[in-house]
Amino acid sequence: MLGAIAGDIIGSVYEHSKHWLTIRNAGFQPLFHPKARFTDDTILTVAIAESLLRGSDFSETLKDYYARYPGAGFGKDFKRWAESEDSEPYGSWGNGSAMRVSPVAWASKSFEEALIVARETAEVTHNHPEGIKGAKAAAATIFLARSGADKSEVKDEVERRFQYDLSFTLDEIRPSFVFDSSCAGTVPQAIVAFLESTDFESAVRLAVSLGGDADTLASIAGAIAAAHYGIPSAIREETLARLDEPLLEIVSEFERQYPASA
To answer: Which of 121, 59, 102, 128 is nearest to 218 (CA)?
Structure first.
């Protein structure tokens, strides 16, 4: 889970970035920009973590977190849903379902459980088939990575089970890549950033280098990379330092409950 949060914070200043030449080679400096901060990606990830810890309703917990952090950059459809008295899903195929799902992969005892719970976390808002598929694919990839699967096994399983084409390279798509908030336009790209990486930091840098929805790309890639590589202590410390106390408390409790996620 902390890998997703680190990716969100690092990528936060590059969403819709105009600094294309700075980030396109993944060599942007510093890794944590002074203005980097947590966004809705982090908030909803922590909301899912708390819901898993407490056994609380996903809809109620997501709405509660929105009420606490209404200015954190939520999409207009999610805001409308969170502010309404109606908790019916709104058919979204957006990447919000995939960026918040990482705690599921750590709290689940089996691959199949991860897929089932990922669907449950998605369909309270993102009940479009693509929204559900994106959440399940992200959770599956993280679960496989934390279970010791190598990259070729991860790639083969994701392509087979979810029909995502992962044969492209980031260099091939980078020149024409644009902002895309869909699961289909985010999850495969984030997975490829992980597949091309050599360590946690390079996975996040590669995801950010695409531009567009950089914080969400980096959040998903960071969640997978953390499961595979772990998180360097310096990045972990900087990430935790940028959280407020309520978020930090849930992250700490989740890591105590599920030590492998630390």
So the answer is: 102
Number of domain units in the chain? 1
Tell whether the model's pLDDT for residue 121 goes beyond 70.
yes
Residue 180 Rama label (left phi>0; alpha psi -120 to 50; beta):
beta
Q: In whole angstroms, give the CA distance from residue 152 to residue 134.
A: 20
Query: Cα–Cα distance between 104 and 56 in angstroms, integer?
Result: 14
Which range marks the domain in which residue 128 is found?
Answer: 2-261
CATH number at residue 29: 1.10.4080.10
> Quick check: 127 and 88 in contact, CB under 8 A?
no
- Give the 3-state secondary structure of residue 92: coil
**What is residue 179's predicted lDDT score, i.e. its pLDDT?**
84
Helices (H) and strands (E) counted in the chain, each on its own, are 16, 0
